[in-house]
Amino acid sequence: MEIAYQLDRPYIFNFREWTFQREIPKLYSEYWATIPAYYRYNISLVGYLKLSKNEAERVRDCLSQGIDCSRQKFAMNDIPAFVEEEHMTAKKNFLSALNFELAEVHHRTGYVDKVTREWNNVEDELRKDSRFGVQLRRGENVMDKAMASAVHTEPDLLKRAMRVYDLIVKHYSWNGEYGKYCEHGIKEAYDEGVGNVADLNLSLIAALRYAGIQADPVILSTRENGYVTEVFPVLSDFNYVLANISIDGKEYLLDATDPLLPFGMIPFHCLNGKGRLIGDRETSWREIRPVEKRKQTNHIALSFTDEGNLKGSIQNTYLGYDALSKRQEILSFNSLRDYTSDLKNKLSPLLVTNIEVKNLEDPSRPLIEIFGVELDGFSDGVSTLLLNPFLINKTVQNPFRASDRLYPVDFGANIDERITVTLEFPEDVVLVTIPEDVGLALPNGGGSYVLKTQKEGQKVSIISWLNTSKAIYSREEYYYLKELFAHIVQVQNTDLIFRKE
After folding, report:
1. Looking at residue 236, which CATH number applies to its domain?
2. Is 69 part of any domain?
């Protein structure tokens, strides 16, 4: 079926964009834009598909009074359906589409009105804005004299910054709202103890400056909001603000919205390319890179009981972004008892006992979870036991199932996952088969997976280690990632076979 229509649009500032790609495949899609000669637009193509047509022609007397127009024709052939996949950022980053941004208006008098502003104009506007730059000069509103005096007595600037950060984080509660502009202003937010992202982080910057620390805001777009336009400033692209400090030549990004964030670590939703640092005199693009990994270690220790069942313990240690997400998960329950009840249900048919959680509310230390486990072994009359040693954190399904991928794989941060299993068995039990050692590596040092098994007497030890050396992998590297995870699934679904003599 072929459909064509014409749309007359009087809104010159938000000229109609065109999305070539949708959730269904298309054989062909063509877009004509007829624009009066007075107007100049920045036209950008988003996504990974290429245009099959990109033509322009002059249309004389397209409007009254002898005004000419420019008619531009864009088309794509054989457009695949857009499929959202795991480990990708906002859909709009990759959906193939044309966007129009009004750049200039050319008047008959010869005067050219530049609509698209330069960064120096936008920066100056932000510095003078009562909801942004003006707030940064009000540090006395968030630090009284006693607090300021206590902070200034610390000669070490890094420790002083940590003190200020700790004071701000403990005083405020985030209301869950994003924004680069203050919702209340830092004085009202301080008095109420609550505010949006800008209320909290601009307060942090103001307090740091008041304490003698060089601090500046960094505006950015969160992962779910999409990438920002770098060619020209589009303030509506930005929906978040962080604090940036520089001490002894080293820079730190700070966020005061979550007391579970350690100093120098920013929320996972902020890991989205670049942000714009707005200094007092100069601005620049700032790479928003994670300083921590998604890291956890699981240690499983098991042995056979006299009845032939298995009993032991599991210790999970979480660091970096895994520690942050685990703390957030546990504290989302009404009580620790509710969390442990949920954990027992999730790990069924394992029998879980004596759950202990350490360092739950101390983000400066690893989060540690320890509990006992029991599971069935040799049942009555059965002499052979198949046991999968990966009781937790097993990769059950390959997250990369598509044959091809047009978009990068974005993990947000490097991954470091280790599972160690030690299992002791009595002399009347024979270990018939053990997994073969595996060593897999991604090209160009992109990461690796290792499985190592060692048997000594009546004890077997298994080490599984997945390590990625970067957070983002290109579409060309997708096949290697897919193969790596396919092997992990295969290896971690291999059973140990025991026979009772």
Report:
1. 3.10.620.30
2. yes
- Cα distance between residue 276 and residue 230, in whole Å: 9
Q: For residue 370, tell me if it sits in a domain.
A: yes
- List the alpha helices (DSSP H) in 12-144: 119-128
In a domain, 1, yes or no: no
Question: Based on the domain organization, do 464 and 443 belong to the same domain?
Answer: yes
Last residue within a domain, chosen from 90, 114, 138:
114
| pLDDT tens, N- to C-terminus, the chain (501 residues) | 677 777 776 667 778 889 999 999 999 999 999 998 889 998 889 988 999 999 999 998 887 777 889 999 999 999 999 988 889 999 989 999 998 888 889 888 888 888 777 888 888 999 999 999 999 988 888 877 657 776 878 889 999 999 999 999 999 999 999 999 999 899 999 999 999 999 999 999 999 999 999 999 999 999 999 999 888 888 889 999 999 999 998 999 999 999 999 999 999 999 999 999 999 888 899 999 999 999 999 999 999 998 899 999 999 999 999 999 999 999 999 999 999 999 999 998 999 999 999 999 999 999 999 999 999 988 777 789 999 999 999 999 999 998 888 899 999 999 999 999 999 999 999 999 888 999 999 999 999 999 999 999 999 999 999 999 999 999 999 999 999 999 999 999 999 999 988
Query: Which residues partner with 112 through β-bridges?
Result: 106
- The answer to whether the beta carbons of residues 290 and 271 sit under 8 Å apart is yes
Q: Which residue has the tokens 């336009």?
A: 229
- Spatial separation of the C-alpha atoms in residues 272 and 92, rounded to whole Å: 13
CA 183 to CA 156: how far, in whole Å?
Answer: 33
The reported pTM is: 0.89
Tally of domains in the chain:
3
Query: What is the phi-psi region of residue 29: left when phi exceeds 0, alpha when psi lies from -120 to 50, beta otherwise?
Result: beta
Same domain, 60 and 81: yes
Domain that holds residue 132: 119-287
Structure tokens at 151: 């902070």
- Are 192 and 45 members of one domain? no
